[in-house]
């Protein structure tokens, strides 16, 4: 995994729950492209269609609250998100994101410092995010070694397959 990532952003609010990220009415879908096309439709139906591929979602407090639905990080990945940066995350969403290969980064106050369409550069080793348009550098929390190993492998299943063989 590259430890320095750059992407354009969309900004959402506080308490974005898993049903807003991926509404339950779409749970029967299995095609990743179709899943991604409905991502964040509980916030705004047009987000997925205009999301910058390889971009970041920026949220406020308690991002991913609600059910333990794994579809939420799956939908974000299928939409094309590389990372989610937020003031805080619901614990189960954070863990599901790491296990599925979606980078969750705690960056306190970021939602109030950026606007839709800006470009951010995330430096995982330094624990910073830079707003390219202004040069402002914001601190963010570094991920632990185990989370980084899982993310570098592309998720928990690829990590286990590499560690124990492809039949896992």
Brief characterization of the structure:
The protein is of the alpha/beta class.
Could you walk me through the main structural features you see in this protein, from its secondary elements to its overall organization?
- The chain is of the alpha/beta class and 168 residues long.
- It contains seven helices and seven strands; from the N terminus they run βαααβαβαββββαα.
- The chain has helices at residues 18-21, 32-37, 47-50, 71-79, 91-100, 145-153, 156-164, and strands spanning 4-11, 56-59, 83-86, 103-106, 119-123, 128-131, 137-139.
- It has a seven-stranded mixed sheet.
- Strand 2 (56-59), helix 4 (71-79) and strand 3 form a beta-alpha-beta unit.
- Helix 6 (145-153) packs across helix 7 (156-164).
- The mean pLDDT is 95.
Number of distinct helices: 7
Helix and strand sequence: EHHHEHEHEEEEHH
Q: Give the C-alpha Rg.
A: 15 Å
Q: Which runs of at least 5 residues are low in confidence (pLDDT < 50)?
A: none
Cα separation of the termini:
22 Å
The proportion of residues in beta strands is 15-25%
Shape verdict:
globular
Major beta-sheet overview: 7 strands, mixed
Q: What structural category arises from helix and sheet content?
A: alpha/beta
Order of strands, widest sheet:
4-3-2-1-5-6-7
- Residues in helix, %: 25-40%
Give the tally of β-strands. Answer: 7
The average pLDDT value, as a whole number, equals 95
């Amino acid at each position: 995994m590259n430890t320095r990532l750059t992407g354009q952003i969309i900004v959402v609010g506080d308490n974005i729950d898993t049903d807003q990220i991926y509404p339950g009415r779409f749970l029967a879908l299995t095609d990743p492209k179709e899943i991604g096309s409905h991502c964040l439709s509980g916030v705004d139906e047009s987000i997925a269609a205009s999301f910058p591929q390889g971009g970041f979602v920026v949220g406020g407090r308690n991002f991913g609250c609600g059910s333990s639905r794994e579809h939420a990080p799956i939908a974000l990945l299928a939409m094309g998100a590389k990372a989610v940066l937020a003031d805080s995350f619901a614990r189960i969403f954070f863990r599901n994101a790491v296990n599925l290969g979606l980078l969750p980064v705690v960056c306190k106050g970021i939602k109030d410092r950026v606007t839709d369409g800006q470009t951010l550069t995330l430096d995982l080793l330094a624990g910073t995010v830079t707003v390219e348009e202004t040069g402002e550098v914001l601190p963010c929390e570094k991920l632990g070694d185990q989370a980084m190993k899982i993310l570098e492998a592309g998720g928990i299943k690829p990590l286990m397959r590499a560690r124990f063989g492809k039949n896992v």
